[in-house]
Specification:
Elements: E1 5-8, E2 12-15, H1 22-36, H2 49-64, E3 69-75, E4 78-89, E5 92-99, H3 108-122, E6 128-134, H4 138-146, E7 150-161, E8 164-174
Parallel strand pairs: 5-6
Antiparallel strand pairs: 1-2, 2-3, 3-4, 4-5, 6-8, 7-8
Helix pairs in contact: 1-2
Length: about 180
């Protein structure tokens, strides 16, 4: 298994970002920048398509080295967001995600995160998954809870976003001898 792409009919496809995705990803981030910047530190840094292209290249290099795995979430052929293993360490991975407003409330990200975890777990590559999300980011916290993640702890002042620090709720889910 090469972990380049996963298709879950009829609507979901996860694929490593390609350089020809740069324009569409850049435009989507620009469209969602104000909303994404409320909970993520990186959107203000994406100001040119070259920034997106550099991120795609870095993401692919990190994937090749086994450090992370970033996937474009395509729903009915359209780019809807990103789901990723921000870090991979041994058999544990930290999950990150963002979704365009137009796709929220449809189960797209629940489907994408579940598919990603099942894909890597079924092959024996990962068995422990962590989600860190801003304590005030209710949609992300609800997603972790809906997917059966267990609240572990709150990390105070975990990340600086804009001009303030946010606490992170840390959730964990383990697959044990399924």
């Amino acid at each position: 298994m090469d972990y380049q792409e996963l298709a879950i009919p009829p609507s979901l496809r996860l694929s490593l970002p390609r350089e020809d995705d740069a324009e569409d990803l850049f435009l989507l981030v620009q469209q969602e920048k104000t909303r994404l910047s409320q909970h993520l530190s990186w959107p203000p840094l994406i100001n040119d398509i070259k920034d997106t292209l550099a991120n795609i290249r870095q993401n692919r290099a990190d994937f090749a080295d086994g450090r992370s795995a970033v996937y474009v979430v395509r729903w009915d052929g359209n780019i809807a967001g990103i789901v990723s293993y921000n870090t991979i360490n041994d058999k544990q991975a930290e999950i990150g995600y963002w979704l365009a407003t137009a796709y929220q409330g449809q189960g797209v990200m629940s489907h994408a995160v579940t598919a990603l975890m099942d894909w890597y777990e079924a092959a024996g590559k990962l068995d422990t998954f962590i989600i860190r999300c801003g304590a005030g980011n209710r949609p992300s916290n609800r997603l972790a809870q809906r997917l059966g993640f267990v609240f572990d702890y709150c990390q105070v002042r975990a990340e600086k976003i804009g001009d303030h620090y946010v606490d992170h709720n840390v959730y964990c889910r383990q697959y044990i001898n399924r």
